[in-house]
Amino acid sequence: MARGLVVGDLRVQVLERAGACRSFTVVWPGGAVHEAADGFLRTYEGSGTQRTYAFLLVDHLRWLEREALALDRVGLRDLQRYMGLAGAKVAGPHGEPWRNGKRPYGRSALQAAAACLKGFYVHQASLGVNRELGEQLSRTRLPTRADRRRAFLGHVSRELPANPLAPPPVRRRHPKMLPEGARDRLLAVASTARDRLVVTWLSDGGFRIGELCGLHLADLHLREDASCGECRVAHVHVCHRAGNPNRAAAKTKPEWSMEGGVIRGGLIKRASPAMVHTYFEYLTGEYPRPGPGHGMLLVQLAGPGSGQPWAADAARGMLRRAGQRAGLGRIRPHAFRHILHDRCPGRLGREPGHRPGRGRVGVGDGRGGDLRPRRRARSGVRCGAATRVG
Predict the structure, then answer these.
(1) DSSP 75-117
(2) Domain spans of the chain, in order of start
(3) Can you name the CATH fold of 182-361?
(4) 77-110 confidence digits (pLDDT tens)
(5) What does the pLDDT look like over 54-63, one tens digit per residue?
(6) CA 312 – CA 214 distance, rounded (Å)
């Protein structure tokens, strides 16, 4: 992704919408909208995918301009050459180097770029532009055993979409886990109560970093028998808000509402005693008084932006530096979710029968145990499985 001011080249334009929402499109150097790219990106309006695809697509469009290729003249081999220049292992000559001075895409970025290019050219084919390429990209494959297990009604699947641009899958027996004892070592080097709260909540709650940084104080029901009536023990409502000042937002978007100042709905995660303890330590010792007005949980503690909402990138940087001080290497927030799922496989809502929407997700008690709610357990469901409420 390009950083800073782009002059004389295709660029991504951010559009501020009502309600603090943002949209992304691609414009020509003179400021005119790139119609083909804009039409494709509009299909992802309101999702985080639009931003990712905008920056991936603008790099490809710049490459097309350099190669003097029109959209109706692009072939599958041209796209394979571009993927090879971006970092994929593609046989054959790739042409003049591209992205000089930049690191090649990693595996995840290559998968996202392949999905973006396939979606873009299939969308163009649906409009009558380069239908031959659209047919080549619209391939299917037979489902594997893992595909059948993963999908709802997977046993009746006969074919799945395939992407000839995507890198070959790599079987990894185990997800990227945190080193042994990483939680305690990170807590030992954390310099503030806010940082200890982040480590504890990621470890016990299984939050995504966007979910954690997007929490508001009103989302926290850290007492038994809260007035929402949706969970008897201490819990947190994860609510998707597109207009947060720090641009952090939950990935999942179950319905939620505020009635009489009480949050109801969203994704409900039970809170462990350790989470409650670090919350009160942070709130009584470091949270600004009087309240900053935005109502968000995590705030900056120093500098000119003191009291303002804490961004997800800042939280990632804190974990990275803490991991280096603790001798653990680079720590990524998502690794905490793997640890939680490994301790109790049903906690993140992945067991058979889980339905997306308003649900409960269990958490640990800080020692790897399970904190069960005082409600009748369903047969065959363990570890606070995510279920629909109401």
Answers:
(1) -HHHHHHHHHHHT----S---S--STTSPPP-HHHHHHHHHHH
(2) 11-162, 182-361
(3) hpI Integrase; Chain A (1.10.443)
(4) 999 999 999 999 888 888 888 888 889 999 889 9
(5) 999 999 999 9
(6) 8
